[in-house]
Structures are given as C-alpha cells and as structure tokens.
Task: inverse folding
C-alpha cells in the first residue's frame, strides 16, 4: 500500500494522516465545501473535493470516495470512525474497485452490525449475553407477542433498535404498561435514523458499568485483545470520559473478559481493529453488549497504556502483515490513561452545541499529555458535523497521577470564541465519585439532573477583578486599524502621548500604522 | 485613565495610573500594583501590593497569565485560571474606549464622529443637528450586551449630523453622530 485515501474529516483524519506519514505512505484527504482549508486537507499530501457540506452529499457518498481513490491512484481506503466506517456497502465497494479497505470484510461488518446476529455470534462463541430476545422483532410481530416475550425476560428491560447505535431507538421500560409506547417510540426512531424499525428486547442490568475490549485481528486468524477500557461516564449514552485500565477490573476478570472478546472476534472472522463492548454488573458478571467494527474515538488511551500504535497496525494488517504483538504486553497496562472528549458545546446551557470561529486556541502539553485535535485558532467549527474538536489524553504512572495531569492540562487548555466542554470536565474530575471510581452508566445523567443546571465553573471574585484589569489594559494597548485612519482625518483619535498607556501603546500603533501605510501605497 | 469594565454582567471601575515599570490599578477603589506585558493575545500580569510597590519594598509578586480575544460581537473573551469570562470596556466618562479612544483626545481639533462600539440598538437620541454641546455631553444611548450605554462628546462643538434613528439597529463601527 503506497497511497491511502482517508474517507473522513476532523481529528480522526489528522490521526490517520499522521500514521501514514510515520509509515512513509502518501495520504489523500477529501473535503466538503466548508472544509476546503481544514487542517486535515492541509496536512495531507493530496486533497480532493467531494461535494456540499451536508454529510449525505459528501462524506457519506460512497461513489465519490471510490471515484477520488481511482482518479488519484490510491490503493487503500481508511474510513476513520463515524460516516462510512461501519457501512458494509462501502467495504464491499472498495473491494470491488480493487482497493484495500482498512477495516473488516463486508461480511464481518454486516454480521456484527446487526444486534441480533452479533448477539447470536456471541452466544455461539460461548460468551455471556444479556438475557433477551434472540431474534429480530420486525413490524409484523404484534405487541401482544412482544409482551409475552417481555414477561419471560422480566422487568425492567430495554427496547432496542436492531440497527441502533448512540442511544437512538432505545427505551427503558420499567413496568409492563409502559411497553406499548416504548415499542412505538423505538420503532419510529429506529425507522427514521437507520431505515429499519426492527427491535429486540434485553433485560436491563442495574448499576452496570460499560467495559470494552479493543482487539486486533490479522488475516492469518490471529486475534490479540487489549487491556480493557472503562467508558461508564456517559451523558445520554454518549461517552464523555474514558480510561484504561478500569479501576474495578482485576487480573482474573481481565483474563476472562478479554478471552471472551477474542472468542467472539474469531467467531465473526474479524480482521483489523474492533471493539467489543460489555456490561459489567455489581457482582462482577459481564455480558456482551455489541461490537464496533471500526477504530474507536477512545483508541488513544489503549495506545498510551500499551505503547501500541493501533492505526499503524490497522494499515499493516490491511497490507497482509501478521500480528507480531506480544499478547501478554497488550494485556498488561503500563500506567493509567484518561481521555476527555473536548466538544464545542456549552455545558452551562444544557450542553448546547457551540459552533463558530475559534478566535484563539492553545493546547496543553508536558509530561503525559497528548492532544489529538483536528482544528486550531482561526478555524470554524462547522454546524454540519460532530462538534468534537479534540481528544485530550493524560497518562500517569497510576490513576491518581493521570487524573492530576488531566486536571492540569484542562486548566492549560485555551479556547476562545466558542464554548467547550472543558468546564464540565474539570468539574467532573473533581467529583469524589470520580476519585473513588464509583460510577455506573447512569451515574452522570442522575448527577446532572440533581444539579439542575448549576454552572460548572464559576469565576471567583479575584478572577473577575484580574479580567477587568486585563481587559482595560488590552483596550489601552489595542493596535487600532481603521479607526487610526479615521482619527487621522478627524483628529479625534488616540494620540501616542495619551494618558498613561505609554510603553505599550505607541509602539504597537506605529507598527499598525506602518502596515497600514504599506498597504495603501 | 478610568475605565468601566463589565465582567460577567457586573460593572467594575478600573483606574490605571502609570507607576514605575507598571501601573497602580484600582478596581472599585481597591489598589494593587500591576506589571503587565503582552505577547500576542496573551498577557502576563505580575500583581503586588500597591503600597509596598510605591515604597519600592514589594515582597510577593503573584503571576497570572490571561488570554484575550476580541469577539465579532464586540466584546472581549478573557481566559484566566482556565476559566473564560466575558468583558466589555467603557471609559468612565461614558463612551466606550474600544475603537474610539475618545477619552484620550481632549486636545484634538476639528470634526469627529461618534461610532457604535459594538452591535446594538439605538435606544435614545439626546441631540439633534445644530445643537451646541459641551465636552462630556451625552448624545446617544445604545443598548448592547443587555446594557444601556450612553455615548458622550469628547469636546465641545455643534452637532453636524445624526446618522441613525431611534430604535434602529447598528453594527459595530457604524457612524452614529458627527460633531464639529
């Protein structure tokens, strides 16, 4: 593989381009109209337009991706995550066009992408699954029949979309009388989001944690599972903070859960990078939940604690190389890693997305810090795509040090112009439950409800005083542009010898002036 | 120089006076000595006790890093100690210092324009063409960032033109009134 087309944008496109560069492979970016000057475009060796801003007209267009790959002579295609990454038609279209899809086969994607087929695969592999219906319940299955199945499983239970993901088409049902409306809601949401209104039922596991196992599978049949990731801190089924290893998974449990994950991947004939998600109940029992047939957003924390470059391995596996990673090394965490998803949203306004221009941005660095970002100062966060702007990862010798480093890095992170989730993350890491690692998948939503929208970070009186001083100084030293000109004409503008601002102001104004004169001549 | 700075919706009075290599800064009457340096959008503030600094016996200098960006809406985004606060600056004599510098031009001559310092709405016109005005006379009230802000004259003169009407919306930098 000599040239790889990255069928994605944002931070993950940047991440893949970096791996390409590390390996001496040429990279090809694609872009929608608003992404013309985006960071992934500038970093890539080649870049091609694929259409208007809405994803359905650009980043989700299989035909355009294949067309660009053919035209530029790419021989590999990396789908990133999101967009076309779990689309078996895309994997098949690449294969048909003679391109190497850097991911699993269309058959594996299809099998593990269907919740019921994936569940059956897990059962066949001998892995525990959450008690529930084994078959997909299409529209032809009556509510009465579903009610009978529900009684057998027991309440509370979950109604889930077969084609679901990200919490869409999912309802919690506490009592039998809530069932009909939950079925209706899940079906209509699933139909609208995935074009498939089939559902299934699953027992609700109380106080469960979300534990997932990253794995790599090569084309020779070797599957290597990695030390688990803990992703229980979720807001509305969206992960907000992930860490590895989990504070509640000991060596014995790790051996069992990673073995189960590898067995499922083998049963699915899985190749490339993938992740198997489990629910872990209070008694230490785990249940297969689903498989993500792609690279995960949170893959860097696994890289930090194992030292393995997962994206580079994706490419090597796609090239046909056998896995040479020592399985024991993949399972033994070196230190602890935490990831915060930095999102363009306003946590103090109900986490409303906050698109717009980033006026200033400075990312943290220093011991143990990694920032995977796809943007920078001067760039716009478009309204069309996922509002995640970066993934901040902190590594430490242990969980305490990783947490302290993450707190330090979050306080160093400077983003002006848009709102970000940083205040929320700083608050979250300060919670005693986080320090004690006492949380389950419902913890955060419960906590947020109890807070009733209280601000996450209120500025102190001292901060506000200093802000007032700095703002006044900023205005004093402001290198004015147009007003300088109009002031010259009217004689009413700031004068170099004005009261008190000498030292800063005149020099800056002279420079601005010189620039201004230069431009006009 | 005196500025009124609105920070997180609260109005603070900031008085800057040159002192040594820095400033004696009084915020709402409470004085501190501030040594300030700017590097692009980043400020370094070294803050010490005002009386000790005046006597040349400063012991503790607290160091702060503050990032400032100008927002298209006209305000300032100020990041301090990892927190972002919103600020807008007006001089104590009523006119916003941003984009205008009116407070510093007392010695000038000739006609001058009063500009809208940020996008807003004209709430009230206090003068009409032909009116004689003294220095510091209120000419127009603009509502912006949920505050009513009175813009005043820099020098005495005659109102030559009023370019806006009551109730109209104005962009930042729009010419509101011309005085000569």
Result:
């Amino acid at each position: 593989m000599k040239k790889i087309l990255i069928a994605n944008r944002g931070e993950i496109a940047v991440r893949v381009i970096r791996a390409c560069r590390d390996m001496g492979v040429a990279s090809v970016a694609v872009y929608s109209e608003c992404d013309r000057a985006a960071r992934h475009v500038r970093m890539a060796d080649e870049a091609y337009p694929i259409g208007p801003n809405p994803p359905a007209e650009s980043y989700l267009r299989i035909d355009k991706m294949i067309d660009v790959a053919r035209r530029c002579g790419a021989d590999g295609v990396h789908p990133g995550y999101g967009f076309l990454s779990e689309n078996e038609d895309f994997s098949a279209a690449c294969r048909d066009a003679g391109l190497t899809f850097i991911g699993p086969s269309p058959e594996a994607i299809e099998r593990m992408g269907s919740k019921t087929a994936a569940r059956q695969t897990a059962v066949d592999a001998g892995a525990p699954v959450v008690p529930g219906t084994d078959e997909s319940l299409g529209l032809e299955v009556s509510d009465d029949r579903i009610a009978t199945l529900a009684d057998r499983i027991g309440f509370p239970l979950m109604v889930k979309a077969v084609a679901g993901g990200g919490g869409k088409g999912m309802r919690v049902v506490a009592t039998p009388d809530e069932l009909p409306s939950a079925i209706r809601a899940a079906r209509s949401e699933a139909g609208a989001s995935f074009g498939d209104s089939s559902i299934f039922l699953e027992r609700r596991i109380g106080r469960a944690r979300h534990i997932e196992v990253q794995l790599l599978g090569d084309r020779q049949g070797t599957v290597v599972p990695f030390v688990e990731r803990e992703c229980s801190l979720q807001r509305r089924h969206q992960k907000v903070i992930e860490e590895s290893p989990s504070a509640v998974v000991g060596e014995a449990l790790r051996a069992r859960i990673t073995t189960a994950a590898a067995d499922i991947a083998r049963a699915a004939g899985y190749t490339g990078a993938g992740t198997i998600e489990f629910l872990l109940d209070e008694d230490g029992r785990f249940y297969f939940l689903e498989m993500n047939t792609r690279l995960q957003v949170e893959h860097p924390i696994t890289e930090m604690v194992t030292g393995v470059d997962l994206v580079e391995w994706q490419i090597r596996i796609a090239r046909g190389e056998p896995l040479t990673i020592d399985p024991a090394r993949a399972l033994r965490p070196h230190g602890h890693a935490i990831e915060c998803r930095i999102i363009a949203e306003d946590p103090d306004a109900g986490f409303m997305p906050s698109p717009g221009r980033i006026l200033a941005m400075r990312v943290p660095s220093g011991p143990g810090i990694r920032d995977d970002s796809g943007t920078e100062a001067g760039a716009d966060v478009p309204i069309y795509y996922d509002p995640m702007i970066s993934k901040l990862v902190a590594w430490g010798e242990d969980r305490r040090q990783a947490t302290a480093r993450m707190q330090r890095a979050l306080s160093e992170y400077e983003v002006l112009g848009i709102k970000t989730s940083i205040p929320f993350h700083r608050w979250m890491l300060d919670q005693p439950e986080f320090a004690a690692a006492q949380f389950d998948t419902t913890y955060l939503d419960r906590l947020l409800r109890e807070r009733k929208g209280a601000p996450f970070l209120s500025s102190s009186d001292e901060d506000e005083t200093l802000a007032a001083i700095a703002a006044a100084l900023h205005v004093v030293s402001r290198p004015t542009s147009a007003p300088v000109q109009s002031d010259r004409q009217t004689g009413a503008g700031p004068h170099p010898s004005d009261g008190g601002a000498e030292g800063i102001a005149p020099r800056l104004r002279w420079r601005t002036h010189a620039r201004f004169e230069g431009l006009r001549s | 120089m005196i500025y009124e700075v609105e920070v997180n919706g609260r109005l603070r009075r900031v008085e800057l006076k040159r002192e040594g290599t820095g400033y004696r800064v009084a915020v709402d009457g409470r004085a501190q000595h501030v040594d300030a340096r700017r590097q692009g959008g980043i400020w370094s503030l070294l803050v010490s006790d005002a009386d000790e600094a005046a006597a040349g016996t400063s012991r503790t200098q607290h160091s702060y890093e503050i990032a400032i960006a100008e927002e298209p809406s006209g305000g300032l985004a100020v990041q301090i100690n990892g927190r972002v606060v919103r600020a807008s600056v007006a001089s104590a004599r009523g006119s916003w210092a941003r984009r205008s510098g009116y407070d510093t031009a007392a010695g000038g001559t000739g006609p001058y324009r009063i500009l809208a310092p940020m996008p807003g709405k004209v709430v009230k016109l206090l003068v009409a063409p032909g009116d004689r005005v003294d220095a510091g006379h209120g000419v127009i009230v603009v509502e912006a960032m949920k505050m009513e802000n009175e813009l005043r004259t820099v020098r005495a003169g005659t109102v030559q033109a009023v370019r806006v009407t009551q109730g109209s919306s104005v962009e930042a930098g729009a010419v509101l009134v011309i005085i000569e």
